[in-house]
Amino acid sequence: MATWLITGCSTGLGRALALAVLDHGDTAVVTARDVSSVQDLADRYPGRALAEALDVTDSDRVSEVVAAGIDAFGGIDVLVNNAGYGYRAAVEEGEIADVQRLFDTHFFGTVALIKAVLPSMRERRSGTIINLSSIGATVTAAGSGYYSAAKSAIEGMTAGLRKEVAPLGITAFVVEPGAFRTDFSGRSLTASATVIDDYAETAGKRRPENDTSSGTQPGDPAKAAEAIYSVVGAGDAPELLLLGRDAVANYRTALTERLESAERWRQVSESTDIDAT
């Protein structure tokens, strides 16, 4: 039996994962900014689910929640950094305050949780850290530049973290979901207040008021949760776990196109070395 700490459990993948973990008999610290949205999980699984209010941008609260989880269950075995939201804007449209808030939630919130759980994981020489990214980090659509940048930052940081903690018995990996039937394209999707008409046919088409994908996404959150749970249980997590046929297809296409581009420009790229003497 493992103890999980999962952020963003009110809806979507976070809630599906919390349910999967608890249904499998594990214990979990389930968090959301509004604790009332996860209190039902604690009531449904008394003694095995601890509901905590958590805004991941509040570093003091992050420390308190991790301490509460350790006190209640003896340690945190698996950390899942899932909390987040969507943000759509052309790069020129994006307000700096909004972009900073986006990074505070997705990137710096993730870092804060990692730093809070690592001391106890290092002491026990075991643990798993799962950071939720998006296929959008690999395939960036118009209007998603800032969101993709935040997710790409998570992936770069996790790649370094994975190498640092592996010798200590700790695993870190990234999950890149495709489109799943959650609130991401609905309630959780935000956009810049600034609208520039010149981007109407690019970024503008993907603003919340023009996005009709909510409720039609192909991915099943419950199946995604089971997939993550099985990977953790197998003890051999990949550096990057793709979720969804669309994610796999888009990832393969993106990597193929990048390799083809690198080969096409290879002569120019290699011409910049210092000449041998």
Give helix and strand order, one letter per element, not per position. Answer: EHEHEHEEHEHEEHEHH
Q: What's the CATH architecture name?
A: 3-Layer(aba) Sandwich
Q: Which percent range describes the beta-strand content? A: 15-25%
Q: How far from one another are the termini? A: 62 Å
What number of structural domains do the residues give?
1
Number of helices: 8
Radius of gyration: 20 Å
Average pLDDT level: 94
The portion of residues assigned to helices is 40-55%
Largest sheet at a glance? Answer: 7 strands, parallel
- What structural category do the secondary elements indicate? alpha/beta
Structure at a glance:
By secondary structure, this protein is an alpha/beta fold. It has helices at 12-23, 39-44, 59-73, 96-124, 145-165, 221-234, 245-264, 266-270; strands at 3-6, 27-32, 49-53, 78-81, 86-88, 127-132, 170-177, 189-191, 240-243. The longest helix is centred in the middle third of the chain and has 29 residues, at 96-124.
Question: Can you characterise this structure?
Answer:
With 277 residues, this protein is an alpha/beta fold. It has a single domain, classed as NAD(P)-binding Rossmann-like Domain (Rossmann fold), CATH 3.40.50. It has helices at residues 12-23, 39-44, 59-73, 96-124, 145-165, 221-234, 245-264, 266-270, and strands at residues 3-6, 27-32, 49-53, 78-81, 86-88, 127-132, 170-177, 189-191, 240-243. The strands form two sheets. Strands 3-2-1-4-6-7-9 form a seven-stranded parallel β-sheet, sandwiched between helices. A two-stranded parallel ribbon has the order 5-8. Strand 6 (127-132), helix 5 and strand 7 form a beta-alpha-beta unit. The longest helix is centred in the middle third of the chain and has 29 residues, at 96-124. The chain is globular and about 60 Å long. The model has no long low-confidence stretch (mean pLDDT 94).
